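Hi everyone, sorry if this is the wrong subforum. Our group has a chain we'd like a structural model of before ordering constructs, and none of us has done structure prediction before. Sequence below.
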Amino acid sequence: MSGTQFKILIADDNPQGAELLEAYLAETDYLVKTAGDGEQTLKLVSDWNPDLILLDIMMPRMSGFEVCKRLRGNPQTKPIPVIMVTALDQHADVERAVDAGTDDFISKPIKQNELLLRINALLKARHATTDLDRTLNYLEALQQNGVTTPAC
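Answer:
Right subforum, don't worry. Here is the predicted structure as tokens:
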């Protein structure tokens, strides 16, 4: 992962909440952008293609649940890791977030160390998956061109 500058989108309608998350990420090498509602989040995801999304659940114009469902329903955005960040902490809310397709769930108040550990873990997993996909595509292309690959 060294040398890679990851892009993180913070989606939160509460300016103080977004500023806190930005402050937590300020000591990292991540590029950060913010969105203030669900529709703006989807637009920024389409335009900017972030590597990870920190997604508030309770937002105007479209909830985080709906945003996550739409991201998971689109082949282009499906692989982007999503961490739902919310004041909601009931078991039913966690279940609904999982059903919407979130990769992780953090309840407020957020601890900086916990947030950074979870972000790093999801980014490492995404990076590994991307590398694996690239390798598999390369091997498939070799086989289609008649090049044999050694058995593992």
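For your construct planning: The domain at 7-144 is CATH 3.40.50.2300 (Rossmann fold). The longest strand covers residues 7-11.
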